[in-house]
Design brief:
This protein has about 425 residues and is of the alpha/beta class. It folds into two domains: about 10-70 and about 330-425, Aspartate Aminotransferase, domain 1; about 85-330, Aspartate Aminotransferase, domain 2, CATH 3.40.640.10. The chain contains 14 helices and 17 strands. The protein has helices at about 20-25, 30-35, 65-70, 80-90, 100-115, 125-145, 165-170, 175, 195-205, 230-245, 315-330, 330-350, 380-390, 410-425; strands at about 45-50, 55, 60-65, 120-125, 150-155, 185-190, 210-215, 220, 225-230, 245-250, 275-280, 290-295, 355-365, 365-370, 390, 395, 400-405.
Length: about 425
Amino acid sequence: MTYSPVVESVEPQAFAVTDPSSVAEFKTADFDAYVMNTYGRFPIAIARGQGSTLWDTEGKSYLDFVAGIATCTLGHAHPALVRAVSDQIQKLHHVSNLYYIPEQGELAKWIVEHSCADRVFFCNSGAEANEAAIKLVRKYAHTVLDFLEQPVILTAKASFHGRTLATITATGQPKYQQYFDPLVPGFDYVPYNDIRSLENKVADLDEGNSRVAAIFLEPLQGEGGVRPGDLAYFKRVREICDQNDILLVFDEVQVGVGRTGKLWGYEHLGVEPDIFTSAKGLAGGVPIGAMMCKKFCDVFEPGNHASTFGGNPLACAAGLAVLKTIAGDRLLDNVQARGEQLRSGLAEIKNQYPTLFTEVRGWGLINGLEISAESSLTSVEIVKAAMEQGLLLAPAGPKVLRFVPPLVVTEAEITQAVEILRQAIATLV
């Protein structure tokens, strides 16, 4: 069956910058004078978007295969999201969690009814959601398992869980941790998809002064190079957790909310986590995060954890609009079809340049094209060349190109993106 999106594809020429006079004055030097230098920004400024297309302040159009880094689930200016946010902000945009928030309860109910979770905690980002998961694990370890010694959370090397102090410690990449020590104690690391290493680490830790309280993994490593989890590996991890009273925690910040062609990444692996997190695409670009858990490990009590803005009416209305649109417009069908089309196109490019590219991998609309270690080309160089041609991509490490377009991307846009990429590569080789 051929999917056709609710929002019809629109020619970029039909749009212009709303107020050219206001954006014509934009200067990167003025921006840099006031904003802290925490990003290596590409030299364009985005003025507006529609669907899978963005326009910069100079009026140039781009196919957006970054989508806010897997965040703009419905693309840009989607009518359902615009309507939900517009309607909600005219009623109530924020109120304290000291009171009941109906929109928050409705969003939590939707998530519970469409996942393995029993309870939801809302916050504002993926890092916050992962912080909540870390705290929940530790309280469970101390109060239910009665750990008298240090509980340890095992994470994977090459993982990414956020940039707070606890989540960079959980992140198994030293480059994110440099200069921020002392790090948070209670974490250790194993290679991803390597069951023997994990079994050995659990045994070693349980014989020492610590004990493993949780195994914390991404179903597919995003920042670590778009590496899907191995089915047999994750099934064995689930068994190890069940046999040793270890909580299984999944970071679904990048892969959840339909990105993989299923609503949740864990559905690809044939196992259920005890705790999992979501953010990025959950509200289509409106800031939100969520930590979900099963009832047996729901040990938080009033005063244990909180978030001033978490679960506010505006963000929750946006989240509901996104999730209901995914379901109502059968976007998962589109994700699966467009993902297969994209991987096929990338495989053709790989075959065209067999010494430059080594692998195409991914699920749904989160995909990676790996550059050969022997090649002098880097992912950033190809990203810049594609940008010049009108295609926005993101690196996932120095040797992997990442493709995460909106879930509403069309067949024609996938075809166009592959062709632009082909042209960009031709300028570099």
